[in-house]
TrEMBL record:
GO molecular function: branched-chain-amino-acid transaminase activity
Originating species: Glycine max (Soybean)
CDD domains membership: BCAT_beta_family
Coiled-coil ranges from the UniProt annotation: none
InterPro entries: Aminotrans_IV, Aminotrans_IV_CS, Aminotransferase-like, B_amino_transII, BCAT-like_C, BCAT-like_N, BCAT_family
EC id: 2.6.1.42
Name this protein carries in UniProt: Branched-chain-amino-acid aminotransferase
Length: 323
């Protein structure tokens, strides 16, 4: 859903981004030879603004998005905004679109920062100019099931990422390749696809757009971010919250065979929050998991969403007030 304003600024290769400006939401003009169109030189981020009961607006760990974009830009040979510039631009975008932030408990304002190689380049090389842009849209739940448990399909014919590739950065070129597997899975009634490592096809990696956790007793495990897996900000936060709640959390190689013994499985991400997984189908075998009241997933989701929306005190310095 289009909102009122977007933030935009540009810089030439080898220079720094200057202070941008807010403009009415609308189309942008690109050269047919723009680096992003020809060679996929682009990154995106995703974060949300939340409205408190008193009307105040909050951002959740925006500096982590800024750091991740900067890391991705280095990998993709791009100029990038500073951390302070990134956070300030988010605040400006939220304030300009504050009437679009849903009431407490009704959703959030999703913010999509883009870093694009917009300068013209025909030979394979970094673009001579870059554009940093942020637009926004009010959102509800990411999955059509809402808070209902997800049903995942373990994909063996397609890979999401490969060793020494770009799976650990949020480049735009990571996402179109997952569409075929995702569409095929949804036609069969699944919510999304769970990918395995490309080298051995024995270890879990991540879902199309979110990280995955498995739980057995008081132990929670999640695949280590070893270069092929995106280091999610919700993932990082959930790990810390879980340890605060007395759970043992392991970041390691998680074998697909461990799905058989798991009590719970859940996904994490900016868009999905902490989403319960009701079943996973692997090699025609369907495995089901505990969901609902009293689960680890619910406990962690209640805590992180409470911090994000200001109903639980932020003792970690994760919340940034927008004023």
């Amino acid at each position: 859903m289009p909102t009122d304003y977007m933030y935009i600024t540009k810089c030439c290769e080898g220079q720094n981004f200057g202070q941008g400006q807010l403009s009415r939401y609308g189309n942008i003009e690109l050269s047919p030879s723009a680096g992003v169109l020809n060679y996929g030189q682009g990154l995106f981020e995703g974060t949300k603004a939340y409205r408190k009961e008193n009307g105040g607006l909050l951002l959740f760990r925006p500096e982590e998005n800024a750091i991740r974009m900067k890391t991705g830009a280095q990998r993709m040979c791009m100029a990038s905004p500073s951390i302070d510039h990134f956070v300030d631009a988010l605040k400006q975008t939220v304030l300009a679109n504050k009437r679009w932030v849903p009431p407490p408990g009704k959703g959030s304002l999703y913010l999509r920062p883009l870093l694009l190689g917009t300068g013209p380049v025909l030979g394979l090389a970094p673009a001579p100019e870059y554009t940093f842009l942020i637009f926004a849209s009010p959102v509800r739940n990411y999955f059509k099931e809402g808070s209902a448990p997800l049903n995942l399909y373990v994909e063996e014919n397609f890979d999401r990422a490969s060793s020494r590739g770009t799976g650990n950065v949020k480049t735009i070129s990571n996402y179109a390749p997952v569409l075929m597997a995702q569409i095929q899975a949804k036609k069969r009634g699944f919510s999304d696809v769970l990918y395995l490592d490309s080298d051995t096809k024995k270890n879990l990696e991540e879902v199309s757009s979110c990280n995955i956790f498995i739980a057995k007793g008081k132990c929670i495990s999640t695949p280590a971010t070893n270069g092929t897996i995106l280091s999610g900000i919700t993932r990082k936060s959930v790990i810390e919250i879980a340890r605060d709640h007395g759970y043992q959390v392991e970041e390691r190689a998680v074998a697909v065979d461990e799905l058989i013994e798991a009590d719970e499985v859940f996904c994490t991400g900016t868009a999905v929050g902490v989403a319960p997984v009701g079943s996973i189908t692997y090699q025609d075998k369907r495995m089901e998991y505990i969901t609902g009241s009293g689960t680890i997933c619910q406990e962690l989701n209640n805590t992180i969403s409470g911090i994000q929306t200001g109903t639980i005190e932020d003792k970690k310095g994760w919340i940034v007030e927008v004023d």
